[in-house]
Amino acid sequence: MKKGHKLCSSEKSLINLKKARSLLDKIITMKEDGKYCIDIMQQNLAAIGLLKSVNQSLMEGHLNTCFADAVKSKDQEKQDAMVKEIIFVTNLSNK
Q1: By C-alpha distance, which of 88, 93, 27 is closest to 54?
Q2: Would residue 88 count as lying in a domain?
Q3: Model confidence over 39-67: pLDDT tens digits?
Q4: Arithmetic mean of pLDDT, 26-41
Q5: Which of 30, 39, 65, 74 meets the CB 3.0–4.6 Å disulfide criterion with 7?
Q6: CA atoms of 57 and 54, how far apart (whole Å)
């Protein structure tokens, strides 16, 4: 796994990750307190939505920076590695 780049992330992604963490804490408390299942599920779906948004943002950043650099480099091995990484992550997100 490669070290992170500032260009592949954004302040919005970080904010959404922190919101998701906060929601998870709320969901855990709701579950511990025996709150209504549908209310818990709604909060859970909100957290999932935030995480999906972060994932999309990270992918866009990666494609616009790391992937674009690999394509410009004309290094076939580097290009192949980038394509494999994207396919791998895409497959994970589709499970």
Answers
A1: 93
A2: yes
A3: 999 999 999 999 999 999 999 999 999 99
A4: 98
A5: 65
A6: 5
Give how many domains the chain has, as a whole number.
1
- Is there a domain that residue 42 lies in? yes
In a domain, 2, yes or no: no
Q: Which residue has the tokens 């192949």?
A: 80
More confident residue, 3 or 47: 47
Query: Greater confidence, 61 or 21?
Result: 21
What is the 3-class SS of 35-95, one letter each residue? CCHHHHHHHHHHHHHHHHHHHHHHHHHHHHHHHHHHHHHCCHHHHHHHHHHHHHHHHHHCC
Domain, as residue range, for 75: 10-93
